[in-house]
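F.,

This is the one I mentioned.
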């Protein structure tokens, strides 16, 4: 994907979201990596052995 190092918002949010049952609201300017901060942990948690949404 071209990432070399995480943005500050990603450094804070990603480890927290990889935990169990955590909710997060992240406020940051446009272009700071918020979408990846939320999207990458979601992708990481997908169980590919299950064929259900």
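My design for it:
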């Amino acid at each position: 994907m071209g990432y070399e190092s995480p943005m500050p918002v990603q450094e804070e949010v990603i480890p927290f979201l990889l935990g169990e049952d955590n909710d997060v609201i992240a406020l940051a300017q446009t272009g700071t990596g918020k979408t990846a901060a939320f999207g990458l942990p979601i992708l990481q948690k997908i169980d590919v052995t299950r064929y259900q949404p």
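The longest helix spans residues 34-44.

Talk soon.
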